[in-house]
Target: Oxygen sensor histidine kinase NreB
Amino acid sequence: MKIRTRSTGEGASRRPSSRPRIRTAFWYLDPAWPRRHGGRHVTGLEKAALTTRQQVADLIEQRTPEIVEAYEASLRAAGNAIAQSPASLDQALATARQIVADVVTSLRVGQVEVDQTCKLLAWDVGATRAADGVHPRESVQASSAFFHAALSTIFSHLPPGSRQVDTLTLITLALERGVALRIRESVAAYTGLLVDKIHEAQLDERRRIARELHDRIGHGMSVTHRQLELYTLYLDKQPDRASVKLATAQQAIQESMHHLRAVTSDLHTRQPLKSLEKALLNDLESLGPDGVAARLRVNGDEAWAPPEVLDEVFLILREGVRNSLRHARATVLLVNVEITPNELRATVEDDGCGLPQERPADAGVGLSSMRERAELLGGRLLVNSRPDNGTRVDLSVPLKGRLLDEPARRRSC
Model:
């Protein structure tokens, strides 16, 4: 077999090169190389680098559980909030496995590669941490802990011959890209959930303002209107009684103005009730249910219920009483309150015309306001009504068992 040689000078000759054979063998080692390098064959140095990266990729893949374990230990040692939530911790460890897999892939293809499906988990991570109230600084701390745990574990197991600068650089860049991409996506999901919470808080505040205007100011306007009607009715034949109704109307107007100022100045509620029974009695008297047999019964110790609960219960019952007197055309009205250490139960019952089976959409906010206040107390409001057979409103509110005040509790010990 005749071998051709190329002269570099007169009389000079070289041994035949074996590189084509090496390049051909390397071509089959990694068919993707020609595509990544413009169709050219690779050199022996490139073959050695590829072999080293493949070995490092295999090593990192084998050490994935150790990396994840070191990451979890770092989170727990730092007291990170993510480690305190099982759901958040599971997501963090799953993210760590994904990033390590991206590093392995990057080493095998020779460039940084990040699996784009990681965005799905990153979105879940952001939503979960926002729902759990995990502060963003905890996420930043967790990212730093993972970066340190991954690099420390990988570098501690790399053999000396595999620590080329290119390989180490690719590992570091793949880690950085994987962490940064997931932080960006999770922050977007975190922010989105917080925006939703802000919107819901705004809706809650609007509903609260509507309740305050309806139950406090609206009630005062209703009382004023009723008292002025009675004033007109009694003016000619019973002027003394008419004067009383006019004074009551003026007092109701003043109270409404006070409540309006409270609503407009930071929505401060009025002082909690000192006595639910007295407040209900005063309310029945101010509404002036002429021709209506009204009865009020309160059983149990009001001290078993917190003042703020009694205040909300009063507003609920007052709305029920007002509906019976103003809209039901009732002749009998019964209000009953039962207070025990663990629960408050109340009913407002009348013999009026009842509620229509189909109520228009603009029928008012009275019943919805009563239900919302009951739900805010952790309680329940039920309304039973049939046309021409009256209406019964049942309210139940759980209490925390305030059996004894602190001095009495100490004396009993």
In short: Confidence is low (pLDDT under 50) at residues 1-37, 402-413. The two ends are 111 Å apart (CA to CA).
